[in-house]
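Hi R.,

Here are the chain sequences for the assembly we discussed:
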Amino acid sequence: MLEYLQGLGHKSLNIFQRLGRGHILLANIVLGLHSLLPRLRLVIKQIFFVGVLSLVIILVSGLFVGMVLGLQMYNTLVDFGAEESLGVVVALSLVRELGPVVSALLFAGRAGSALTAEIGLMKATEQLSAMEMMAVDPIRRVLAPRFLAGTISMPLLAAIFSAVGVLGGYFVGVGLLGVDEGAYWSQMQANVDLYDDIYNGVIKSVVFGIVVTWIAVFEGYDAIPTSEGVSRATTRTVVHSSLAVLGLDFVLTALMFGE
Amino acid sequence: MTTRTTEIWVGLFVAGGLAALFMLAMQVSNLSTYTDDEGFDVEARFEDASGLKVRSAVTMAGVRIGQVKQIHFDDDKLQAVVTIRLNSVHDKLPEGTSASIYTAGLLGEKYVGLEPGSSSNHCEDMALEAELEGRDFNAADCVSVPVYLKDGSSIQITQGSMVLEKLIGQFVSRFLTEGDSNKKADSSEGDS
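And here is the predicted structure of the full complex:
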């Protein structure tokens, strides 16, 4: 009986310790961000790895998500004779929800896992310790640029996703299914609000960018320095950041659109 | 990969992301339909402005010529006061223009439709006056000065929104009372 209790306590303490370490790391990263100013080249290099290399998957999935939305919504809307509203439905669902959320999930799978694996392997091969030996702070030199790059890339990727998705819906709706082109755009423009919808979508994607990169960087930095530990950390990054994105999405949606 | 190509790619990526945001703002959202501040305000009072929102469209002959700027409640007259911002190019609307609240489609958004009325003309007033006083009036003497809606003027003839439930309620109650009276008529016929 006591052993079970002890096991439970041990696990809870572990979770709280990890949470604490994660927040201390985040605080250290944010405090170290200013030291990046003279070394913006580091950030640019990371934006290349995190953002530019994720472009293909974002473009392709954005296009297809938009096309599927156009197809599905058309079939539903046509029953009500409201197929002119196709543009509104596609744009609102992309800008408010699917753009930020799906691109954050893809980002976690594509860039987050790579970040964790890279940092975890640096730790396993004692590169991080070597840096510390040379009086180089690995948090400022390795983690901070990656964190900043992820935070910058995520809103851009989400915006590209939404824009491409709207175009995909346009190709299917107007090109294939014969929705009136003017109605598609004008209904969209009449019903999508710059502040309520697009601005809030951008805020969402910034939050997701911060959370996903934070989890990825922390898991790598906190990984057990063995090949097994790194692989576990990579898995955890994808699972935890996907869950965090979906959970936070509900909270943010309730805050933004709930009233 | 050299630093130069990396930087070029990152530059392209950031430019593409910003372009996507710009496209969302301009092409997808209502930013392009925002009217700029150039315009003048006209006031209209409605018995019922339910469903009308700030930035709802204001149209004449089906063309958007302005938007609803403000809606508030007049405590004295117990009416809805709707301030309409009309685009400044449309400064030739006659004073007698009437405003009604319509619904776009059966279930669509509410909007304010304006219908042109007569611009109460200086000459007509004079002619009426002359007729009342029993003297001749020579129309050629009078220079017609039409009066247009301008900043601060108010629309006199208005019709508020049709609330579907009210209409149905009226219809049902009339139907029921008619049914009752028919029944009574039937029974009285049966008695006699």
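Residues 1-32 of chain B form one domain. The mean pLDDT of chain B is 79.

Let me know if anything looks off.

Best,
T.
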